[in-house]
Amino acid sequence: METDERIRDAIAHTELVRPPRQSLATFGVSDIRYYLLTQPVYTDITGNTEETVVREGRVIAEKPKIVTPYYLMNLFQGFEHGQEYAEYVLRTYGANEPGLLYRYRNEPAGMNILASPVESVIENINQEIERSGNPLTAIIKGVDQLWDISLMKFIHDITRQSLGSNVMEMGMRGMLGMDGSIPRHARYMIEQLFREAAAERSRVSELEAELRRWGLFGEYEDRFLDLFRRR
Questions:
Q1: Distance CA 108, CA 152 (A)
Q2: Residue 121, SS3?
Q3: What DSSP designation does 81 have?
Q4: Which residue ranges of the chain lie beneath pLDDT 70?
Q5: What was the pLDDT predicted at 160?
Q6: CA pair distance 98, 71, nearest whole angstrom
Q7: What is the model's pLDDT at position 49?
Q8: How far apart are CA 175 and CA 185, in angstroms?
Q9: Which of 7, 17, 34, 229 could be disulfide-bonded to 139 (CB atoms 3.0-4.6 Å)?
Q10: What pLDDT score does 109 carry?
């Protein structure tokens, strides 16, 4: 498919210039600051390589959970091409391949076009990061038209790099394993959400969203509606 080809091309031309200096947290939230550098989309026309687009922002990686590619279909927030990327992962790995992933939220902070070549911009940003001392800061080179694919590729890669320690910690707490096509821990979290929704009405929408992400709303529908009948 043409969309897959564009995504593969963007992934192939994504480079992590400066990775974060620490792994993502297993049982907490990670706040990653990024600088994503691209050449302007019009560079192929003008031939001018002395300009660099700099996008800044934060990616919030929430407490990780055990998920499948099917769940990924509703995972990404704030990404223009998030659905396309999720569909690509689904086709590549299958619907029910378990893995430990994070729920990501992209919070862009701004974009500038600098009259400097990319290597010069990288050097200046590196110096700024060294002064700030923030270990969760990254520099990424990507593709202008599909810059958010480059950002998601970066997130996917650092998640995989954190998997070893994350899986070990979760395994030690008995959180791994599957119940058919659903991770057992997902069932546990759904039960927890039911308890919270029964006590606090504001959690009902979160429970419904989680059931729909897993394709389980039909299975739990009667129990879900009971939450309203009790009130």
A1: 13
A2: helix
A3: T
A4: 1-2, 44-46, 48, 69-70, 72-78, 94-102, 174, 230-231
A5: 77
A6: 10
A7: 73
A8: 6
A9: 17
A10: 93
Residues in the chain: 231
Query: How many C-beta atoms lie closer than 10 Å to residue 25's C-beta?
Result: 18
Using DSSP, state whether 65 is helix, strand or coil.
Answer: strand
Tokens of 153: 């590729």
Contacts 24+ apart (CB under 8 A), 120-126: 121/37, 121/52, 121/54, 122/17, 122/18, 122/37, 125/35, 125/54, 126/18
Q: How far apart are CA 29 and CA 83, in angstroms?
A: 23
First-last CA distance in the chain: 50
* Residue 147 to residue 140: CA distance in whole angstroms: 10
**What pLDDT digit, counting tens, does each position of 141-192 carry?**
999 989 989 998 898 888 777 777 777 777 777 677 777 778 888 888 899 9
Backbone angles phi, psi at 172, to 5 degrees: -65, -25
Predicted TM-score of the model (pTM):
0.63
- Rounded-to-integer distance, Cα 69 and Cα 126, Å: 35
